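User: Assemble these into one structure.

Assistant: Restating your components, then the assembled model:
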Amino acid sequence: MSTAQQPAVTAPPPAVRRGGYSPFWELVRSRLLEFCREPEVVFWVYGFPVLMVVSLGIAYRERDVPKPRVEVVAGPATVSDAEALARPGSGVVAAVSARAAALEHLRTGRADLVVERDEPVLEGDASASAAIRYHFDPSRPESVLARDRARDALERAAGRRDLLAVEDVPQTAPGSRYIDFLIPGLMGLSLMGGGLWGVGFVAVEMRVRKLLKRFLATPMRRWQFLLSIMVSRMLFMIPEMLLLVCFSRWAFGVRIFGSPWAVAALVLLGAVCFAGIGLLVASRTKTLEAVNGILNLIMLPMWMASGVFFPRERYPEALQPLLRAMPLTALVDALRAVMLEGASLAACWPEVATLVAWGAVTFALALRIFRWV
Amino acid sequence: MTASQPAIRVRDLVKRYPGRPPVEAVRGLSLEVQRGECFGLLGPNGAGKTTTIEILEGLLAPTSGSVEVLGLRWATDERRLREQIGISLQETRLSDKLTVGETIRLFRSFYAAGIDPEEALAMVGLEAKSRSRVDAISGGERQRLAVATAIVGWPELLFLDEPTTGLDPQSRRQIWDLVERCRACGHTVLLTTHFMDEAERLCDRLAIIDTGTIIALGTPAELVASFGVATLDDLFLKLAGRRLTESGWAETLLADPPGRSADAERPASGDAS
């Protein structure tokens, strides 16, 4: 190739200016722009928790216990028995079937109870009125319920009278339903996922791309970079939490009984705590596969045992101290106490202390061992 | 920092990567680069160019030896040094979701003083791409953007690690113009390259590196004259060819330090065209 010497470029030196930019806010701004331009990430952060509220809210919506299904074996007393069971207020659905078919339905779960009346020994002998046989499955709650309701209905039809006056008072007040229990759990779950993925995964991805190394080669201050990841995560979280709280209020009437400021403080504390754990996971991890596995390993036990979907009291008493020490348990317990019972932040001090400890220790450790290249 | 000091002074630099057996990527390299000079590091893949340049950039710690950059040392003056040098790494994937303009603005914000981000883009011919996303521009444009991030702080000393590898002729030309402009402004440039024409055109002096040491040093004309060859290409092939017949060459290729495998995939001497 020719290497003919050309005259040196004569363009004047460019104007060099000082300052004019805030590196910290430029970093935060870049993260926010990147986040908003990833539609799938936006869905996981904002859409997924709402979908979860909708689906679980519908699945566990307030409704009466379904009426058990009773089948009466065809025979001489069939008609009166079936009529008695079909009367409004019996609390069961009744049908007539042949004996073999009815028992088959019970066995396969299509019927909850089979009512069978023995043939009278002598025609017209009222005193020898036949015994009633209830075929049911004692291990199925709806089968046990069907037996009690059918028995009650048939006894009444035969002339039994209640001896005590009875008044039923149904309880379906907001605050005591499953959806009320669920929302603080989902808020905690969302904060955990967002903090661990939004900080841990993002930092490892930047390391894999050698973007961390490139940043390190500039005068950028390292703490500003780490803080910018944390702060941008806090900013994504605000609409996420508002969306959950407002949507569940609008769709299911879920109320916050305690102070909204206490809820906000707990949310912030939870977000910082999980961001710290995320940063610690990211501090030495070199591949995306590894960070994926570690994050799932951390989240799975908390998904199951922190009492998000069902009370953690179902686990053995011996495990409870361990469960209480997990950050998600502490966050969800405190959120429930404030949101459902109207507790003050001070009353939740053990949970708050647990969250502060997790956040402080993981963040300090991450700063110490974080690898840039 | 006084102007009389060289831009870079390296004495007996050694870099050993732990392993079994340990790999010595740099073995006792000494070098001085004067201020205002454009200095080229040449050598086959795996010769130790990138290891050397990353030690000079303060991104790798040497096993032994002394390094002075702009009269300062990495251990004590890292912050001052970072403000005064600009770096383009061999491989960096900048954020795909940011635009070219947003990326350069971010890098500009890291420096206390520097040039206008749009001007840095204009210097590498990317002013029209300012609003394009990084994932929507070509590989050559991305490489030019990487160089733009290196000059946006208008550094006293510019490090470019293989800035034109894989670029089309037009993009190469833009990088060359930029290097010449920096030099015309009295700045120092240290670059690594495989291309002899590039070295001949841009560099005041060259060092040819193989197996972690300098095997030849001088101006392009001096090197050609002292080895009795017609062109730098011939010199490079002659040196590389000599090494091919010795065991050291194969050893160098096999003992590529970890994390540099991409380097080894390219043909060893075919790119000296």
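The radius of gyration of chain A is 32 Å.
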